[in-house]
Amino acid sequence: MGMVALTYKVMPNPNVDDVLPEDVAEQIRALADDVYDVQLVETKPLAFGLKFIQVHVVMNDGSGLSDVFEDAMKVIHGTGEIEVLSMGLL
Questions:
Q1: How far is CA 57 from CA 7, 64, 86, in A?
Q2: Is the model's pTM score more than 0.85?
Q3: How far apart are CA 18 and CA 8, in angstroms?
Q4: Cβ(25)–Cβ(42) below 8 Å
Q5: Per-residue pLDDT reduced to its tens digit, 32-85
Q6: Does an H or E element contain 63, and which?
Q7: Model confidence pLDDT, tens digit, residues 47-59
Q8: How far is CA 24 from the centre of its chain?
């Protein structure tokens, strides 16, 4: 089985007042384990003072593994919209 590299764009939830993108990024980093190799999590400017979180993760090319990782990110307090920016086999 091969490996797949994914890059996500994670937006903080605009309806939650006390959310800092840096706090969400730290919680996403904590999702790293033996299945998900979270290689890079960084906050980047978007526009007008808004920031988004870019996540680079490598995992096995197994059925449903990316969905499980996305669901884990969604339950983090303050996580809004999640978009896959790129996906590729290694």
A1: 7, 15, 11
A2: yes
A3: 22
A4: yes
A5: 999 999 999 999 999 888 899 999 999 999 889 999 999 999 999 999 999 999
A6: none
A7: 888 899 999 999 9
A8: 9
**Strand residue runs (E) in 1-90:** 3-12, 37-45, 51-60, 79-89
Sign of the torsion formed by the C-alpha atoms of 78, 83, 86 and 87 = positive
Q: Which two tokens stand for residue 39?
A: 């290689």
3-89: CATH topology is Alpha-Beta Plaits (3.30.70)
Q: Which residues contact 43 (CB under 8 A, 6 or more apart)?
A: 21, 22, 25, 51, 52, 53, 54
